[in-house]
From TrEMBL:
Signal peptide: none annotated. The chain crosses the membrane at residues 14-36, 48-67, 130-149, 155-178, 213-231, 243-263. This is ZIP family metal transporter. Keywords: Membrane, Transmembrane, Transmembrane helix.
Amino acid sequence: MFPLFAARWDRSDLTASLTLFTGLMALAFCLVHLFVGQLRFLDRNPRSRWLSFSGGVAVAYVFLHMLPELGANAGAFHRATGLDEVMAESAVYLLALFGVAAFYGTERALKRSRGQDKDQIEQARPESSVFWLHIAVSSLLMFVIGYLLNHREDTSLIGLALYFFAMILHFVTADFGTRGDHPELYDDRGRWILSAATLAGWLLGTQLSVPEIAIGGLFAFVSGAIVLVVLKEELPEERKSFFLPFAGGTLLYAALVLSEQALSA
């Protein structure tokens, strides 16, 4: 019915059209890194409803795209390693757990470096060395996400569009939180490092295709990291999040995903 949206490319033959689309997406991600500090309407207390909406979209993406794809990637591990299906699936989710642990560790380090005074924890700045550790780990995540733009399981145009929609809103939320830890350092160098990592990952993805098992592992790690970032940004009580925008983002993205699946069936 909609051949343009349903059309899929052979992943072994990276076309110029796919490269153009993913390149534009990578540039849009970089614009978020570079200019999130200019989005003044996000900087308010209580928390901006747009950030809660973005968090809802990211949560829906995790449950409707990432978790099913994690299960699908277990097949690649099974074929590549010879492990039985249960062990292969456990290996995939273990990599996702590593993603959670890596980002939880940096978030804990940031919180501890602000000091132990709970009344001042939101105003205090973390140590610059800890902030740069956080930027380094975030850059690794941006690099992998940029690479996966050209190596996704779902390569339909509408699938790419849904991925882009979820990821760019996630970046707004994540970058806004990161910048809030150290605005001066983020604006001076942090945003450029994140942008460079995103473009480098995308560029590598256009030139190099790693084995399917490696793609599955990278995707699992990214999934775990995004789960942690989403929960960190939305759940703490002191952030004064809004439920209705959060639920609205979740329901909207869920409706888009279900519509895309119905059209592709």
